[in-house]
Backbone:
């Protein structure tokens, strides 16, 4: 039976951040993930916003981790080769009588230690963002807000952890926890493991793990959010993230540029006990379309190229649950917005607690740098020519929409924590994320996966085991 110093349950952005910070220490660490790859849950379907930190209640863990995570993002993105830009954000007010709430949000941001906040009149805001609606009568400008690629951030954290010695076990679902004299017995569908400490980063299932280990119970409600992603021709409709004044269910429907040049609209917010249902609905899309139009005019919804649903782990106390909640059991539970922003800070915080608890020493040879798959589309003409001279596979374009080459896909398949599925390739290279949404490139990517991994086409999956694409080979 394999024994570890710490086992992290969940390979989303939070679990991967904890794993990377643990990899700075001497010890044996394992991440177990029930899906087939990193970034298969909440981390793959969110707003991709690096929040400034003005929204969370002062003194809460959400506030502290948000502000610290925002501060860390420049260094993290540089070390991990992750696309990130501080485009800023507006929180817009649509009614004169609600302007005091905007002032409250500004004061809350100051209490949280958020720098570079400014209150604007409606005219000032519309001068900077001409597509704001006429109803906008004021705005809070948060200059430190940014946009990031959530796939690249999660992959970067996970690959950095793996590069520094952390082991990963995919398709590994935790089925039970048992306290032992040495720590914990972690039962899974792939066999049992032992660990001196367990980290619970299981997303919408974090209450299940917590309640196995802790006397004081936790309740997580999946909060569903639907989004629409628009074509890159709509990407310049706004230049900053446009929020509406927060309500009971969060920051409301936003309109935002993405780091790759698209436009994102969403999310809705509906609580639902189903932890697996990520299907979009006509009613949800209609709702977000209507609400987006309140703050931003003429959103070109005819240019939607895809819609998707994300699940957020809403905790009944409306705060992150972090720390040692049972002997050598560490929670990272209830991680909803601003979880993506907060992940580096959560990793830093929990790894320090675990290192102190277990007496783990600092590693002398920790390497903070990780390079992602090189992207042909981002290179200059000279750089492209040199890359193709080095490796002719870079001259064979597989995905026309995003200009992704065979060389990039091969790098993704054979890299550390390499891609094994269509979605795995997509998240590492953007093949299939363009206007045609993989209509052209899917068969070609499948052929590369089949060839490089020695798999029959019937064995290729979109994501998990139940997502078979080719059911039966036909004879030509």
Residues:
């Amino acid at each position: 039976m394999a024994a570890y110093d710490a086992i992290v349950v969940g390979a989303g952005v939070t679990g991967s951040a904890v794993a990377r910070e643990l990899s700075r220490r001497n010890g044996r660490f394992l991440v177990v993930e029930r899906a087939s790859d990193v970034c298969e849950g909440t981390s793959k379907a969110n707003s991709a916003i690096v929040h400034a930190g003005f929204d969370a209640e002062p003194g809460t863990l959400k506030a502290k981790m948000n502000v610290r995570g925002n501060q860390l993002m420049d260094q993290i993105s540089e070390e991990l080769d992750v696309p990130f830009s501080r485009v800023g954000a507006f929180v817009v007010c649509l009614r004169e009588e609600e302007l005091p709430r905007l002032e409250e949000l500004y004061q809350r941001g100051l209490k949280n230690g958020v720098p570079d906040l400014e209150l604007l009149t409606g005219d000032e805001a519309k001068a900077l963002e001409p597509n704001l609606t006429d109803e906008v009568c004021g705005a809070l400008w948060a200059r430190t807000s940014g946009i990031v690629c959530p796939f690249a951030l999660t992959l970067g954290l996970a690959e950095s952890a793996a590069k520094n010695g952390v082991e990963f076990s995919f398709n590994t679902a935790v089925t039970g926890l048992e306290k032992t004299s040495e720590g914990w017995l972690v039962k899974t569908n792939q066999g049992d493991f032992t660990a001196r400490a367990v980290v619970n980063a299981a997303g919408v299932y974090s209450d299940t793990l917590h309640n196995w280990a802790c006397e004081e119970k936790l309740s997580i409600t999946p909060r569903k959010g639907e989004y629409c992603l628009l074509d890159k021709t709509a990407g310049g409709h706004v230049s900053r993230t446009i929020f509406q004044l927060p309500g009971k269910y969060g920051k409301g429907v936003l309109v935002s540029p993405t780091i790759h040049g698209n436009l994102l609209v969403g999310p809705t917010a509906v609580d639902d006990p189903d932890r697996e249902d990520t299907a979009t609905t006509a009613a949800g899309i209609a709702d977000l379309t209507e609400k987006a139009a309140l703050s931003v005019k003429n959103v070109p919804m005819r240019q939607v190229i895809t819609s998707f649903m994300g699940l957020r782990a809403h905790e009944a106390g409306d705060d992150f649950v972090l720390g040692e909640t049972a002997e050598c059991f560490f929670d990272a539970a209830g991680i909803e917005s601003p979880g993506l922003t907060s992940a580096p800070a959560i990793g830093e915080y929990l790894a320090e607690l675990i290192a102190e608890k277990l007496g783990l020493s600092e590693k002398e040879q920790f390497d903070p740098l990780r390079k992602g798959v090189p992207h042909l589309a981002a290179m200059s003409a000279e750089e492209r020519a040199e890359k193709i001279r080095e490796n002719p596979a870079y001259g064979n374009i597989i995905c026309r929409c995003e200009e992704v080459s065979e060389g990039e896909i091969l790098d993704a398949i054979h890299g550390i924590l390499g891609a094994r599925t269509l979605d795995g390739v997509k998240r590492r290279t953007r093949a299939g994320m363009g206007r045609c949404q993989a209509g052209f490139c899917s068969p070609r990517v499948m052929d590369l996966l089949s060839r490089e991994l020695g798999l029959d086409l019937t064995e290729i999956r979109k994501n998990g085991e139940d997502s078979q694409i080719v059911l039966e080979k036909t004879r030509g």
Summary: The mean pLDDT is 96. The first helix runs from residue 13 to 22. The radius of gyration is 22 Å. The longest strand covers residues 304-315.
